[in-house]
Amino acid sequence: MTVILEACDVSFGYSGGQTIVDGFSAKFHAGTTTAITGPSGRGKSTMLYLLGLMLAPRSGEVVVESKNASRAQDKERADLRARKFGFVFQDAALDSSRTVLDNVTEPALYRAQSRKELEPAARDLLARFKVDVPAHRKPGQVSGGQAQRIALCRALLGSPKILLADEPTGNLDPATAQVVIDALREHAHNGSAVIVVTHSPDVAAVCDAEVRL
């Protein structure tokens, strides 16, 4: 299987603080869903941000499609995130000042595309995941489950080769959680690498691989 993303002996700690991630190495393959598990405080979310090029490691490398991306310039890392990555954050991380539709089309801001250009695909995703609210509604006017599905639509827009999800089912009812997990697995099986930070043994059990911190 093709390795899309790789962590090579990655370590990280905030300035003046203790080491949070120490010598982490793992390979993430196209077509697979990988769970990152472990006790609270072991740096799972931090590792996800390192893999997603939102943090730079203290040492080691994050390699994206055979390129050492962790030492690239800020602009190049931002471009890689825009073109290659999708993110589902634990709390959905929607912009409360923008509409549901604008939240889904947010990736257009970083891909030199217009929001109008992505609107048809965004509406298709909202319909697929049964987000049955007017597209002009604001995130504060939707339920937690709807907000997480909106965040999933945003992450899937553009079919990213790497999709990172931080506790994507942590605050969801079982039915909504199953919708999210099924969508992540389907995205992986279409050829992407999906990496899920989770405390849930049930979520880890349906992933193709597990990396424990």
From TrEMBL:
Coiled-coil ranges from the UniProt annotation: none
Molecular function per GO: ATP binding
Domain ABC transporter: 5-213
Gene3D superfamilies listed in its UniProt record: P-loop containing nucleotide triphosphate hydrolases (3.40.50.300)
Nucleotide-binding recorded as keyword: yes
Key words of the record: ATP-binding, Nucleotide-binding
The family this protein is said to belong to: Belongs to the ABC transporter superfamily.
Designated name of the protein: ABC transporter ATP-binding protein
Organism: Microbacterium memoriense
Lineage per the UniProt record: Bacteria, Bacillati, Actinomycetota, Actinomycetes, Micrococcales
